[in-house]
Amino acid sequence: MGGTGRPTLLYMHLHILKGRIHLDSRSTCRDAWLISHISGGHMRAWQRMSATLVVVAAASSPALAAATPDDATPPDTLAACPAGTVGVPVLLIHGTNADVERSLGPTRQALADDGRCVYGPDFDSTRPLSESVDYFAAVVEHIRAVNGVDVIDVVGKSQGGLIARAVSLKFAGQQSNPIRNLVTVSGPHQGVTEFAGSTNLNPVALLVPGLPAAAHDMLAGSEFLTELDADGMTAPGVRYTLIGTRTDRIVTPYTSSFIDAPNTTDILIQDGCPEDLAGHLAESADPRTIDLTLNALDPVRHHTVRCVANDDQR
């Protein structure tokens, strides 16, 4: 990226189908996802399915430049909700290598159509999750202050879902939590432990320079997750709705998206709609996933959840 001093990262997707590997260049960007190692002994596990891995190549520098708070939308630039909006404000937190439009664009539009006030600040999804949690905690406090409200609703997709839950735990010691409803879509709450259905693949076997801290934080057993969940995975007073899909090939196993706790509702989109096979990326525009999110935030207004066949397993 000219003039920034940051390396340009080339994202390539490995499509492994019927034992053949195909590379295609999709985009240049500054985020990264997990690096998986495939040795000859592990190739059979990949040949049994069509999978996508993200391979990161630094094109101009041997390491990623350190993320700074300047990469995120300053909280104090977020204006008060316009007059006429209904309900409490909604904060959307996007996933890795994305923005709110790509992660939760249709959900944002549906909320706006309802008259809700929606915030979707950008942030650097490569930074350590602890930094992102601190940032979004400040965002929550600013939204409350500028609007004069006690609580807000939060929706997070993928990494954004884990960040949202961590923010709710950060406020757990307060007399009342500023988060009322928290909805996550395929958030890696339990951490990622499997790749392409195999537990034998080491996700950090190829430690390239600059592998983002966020990727390490989302691995099962990471220091971040261990410390986060030391006193429990949920905060009192928050209603959690955790949505996941059986066809998820990024947050694996897909059950990592769920939590067993009294104040959580775990929803597999295939329950009651087996023909909806939307994968991790496809969930962003999946009608059922969107309806489930709206239902969790306002079950009176959105009591109907559609079942629409979806074969997009990306």
TrEMBL record:
SUPFAM superfamilies: alpha/beta-Hydrolases
UniProt xrefs under InterPro entries: AB_hydrolase_fold (IPR029058)
Keywords, alphabetical: Hydrolase
Molecular-function annotations in GO: hydrolase activity
Pfam family, one: Palm_thioest
Protein name: Alpha/beta fold hydrolase
